[in-house]
Write a structure and sequence with these properties.
Number of domains: 4
Number of helices: 8
Strand order of the largest sheet: 1-4-3-2-6-5
Structural class: alpha+beta
Largest sheet: 6 strands, mixed
Radius of gyration: 56 Å
């Protein structure tokens, strides 16, 4: 009798659990069915590995929907993701053109979800271009951080592979050979020897100068130079005054008159010197004639020879 009672209790428990499960499923389904949601689609040009139907759709970290379906877009290139978005978030998406859908990793499990957030700069211009007309409102997407890193690494790899390492190696080899030839040249050794001798000569000159000036007291010369500098400054300050400037102008005018008189005197002196030179030439000519024919001094021209 006790066994039948226990069986009856177990049966009641199982039926109650099944009833609760069915009610919960019906309630969850009805809640999902009657929820105020909007169907939207987004398109990705990268792999959506780890994103499955039922994955979360979040608006800046806040749950805002779920993924309904993942398929290939009509152009056979992009990946079409159909989402159910809460109506209030859908209204925000329609009003803000800087919102973009982006794939994000959910921890370290490898699963992904869709994050809707504000973007700027190049991220706004990297949305895939659609060559067809979607059936639902479109939420533009932007590449994920992993895709951006992969693209940057690929670009770095392409740049590295584009470097002409062979040409650079040949240039380095040629440069090293030329440097080796220069170092082995005897002329370089002579130049280095000459530079060493020049350095020793400079050291000796410096030592001689130090020895000569060792007992020389340069302080008086410096003081005298400072005094001359002070007098020059005083003279320049006085020269700025109007009275001294007028006196200097008058002096310069008088000096100009003297210079003109001197110039006239020099010109007259030059004329006198030229006349003296001509007289000396005539005197020299007369002296030569008298030395050859002395009779011309007392008589006329000599008679013609027989």
């Amino acid at each position: 009798m006790a066994s039948d009672t226990r069986k009856f209790q177990v049966g009641i428990f199982v039926l109650s659990a099944a009833f609760v499960g069915i009610v919960a499923a019906i309630w969850l389904g009805a809640n999902r069915y009657f929820a105020d949601e909007v169907t939207m689609v987004t398109y990705f040009s990268e792999s959506v590995q780890g994103l499955d139907p039922g994955s979360d759709v979040k608006f800046r970290g806040v749950p805002g929907g779920r993924v309904e379906q993942i398929s290939i877009a009509p152009d056979d290139q992009l990946i079409e993701v159909t989402m159910s978005i809460h109506s209030n978030i859908a209204d925000v998406i329609h009003r803000d053109e800087t919102l973009r859908a982006q794939l994000q990793l959910a921890g370290i499990t490898g699963l992904r979800y869709i994050e809707i957030d504000h973007q700027s700069g190049d991220s706004l211009r990297k949305s895939p271009v659609l060559k067809f007309t979607p059936e639902h409102p479109v939420l533009s997407s932007t590449p994920s951080s992993f895709a951006a890193i992969q693209e940057a690494l690929q670009q770095i790899y392409d740049n590295v592979m584009g470097i002409d390492f062979t040409g650079i190696s040949d240039d380095i080899r040629t440069t090293l050979k030329a440097a080796d030839d220069i170092l082995r040249d005897d002329r370089l050794q002579r130049i280095l020897s000459s530079m060493a001798e020049l350095s020793e000569s400079a050291s000796r000159v410096t030592a001689n100068v130090e020895r000569i000036t060792e007992d020389v007291d340069v302080a008086p010369a410096i003081d005298e130079l400072r005094g001359v500098t002070a007098e020059a400054r005083g003279f320049l300050s006085e020269l700025r005054e109007e009275q001294l400037a007028d006196e200097l102008r008058s002096t310069l005018e008088e000096f100009g008159g003297v210079a003109q008189s001197t110039q006239s005197f020099v010109f007259g002196l030059n004329d006198t010197v030229e006349r003296i030179d001509r007289s000396l030439d005539n005197l020299e000519t007369l002296t030569n004639d008298l030395s050859q024919q002395p009779s011309r001094l007392l008589f006329s021209n000599p008679p013609a020879p027989r």
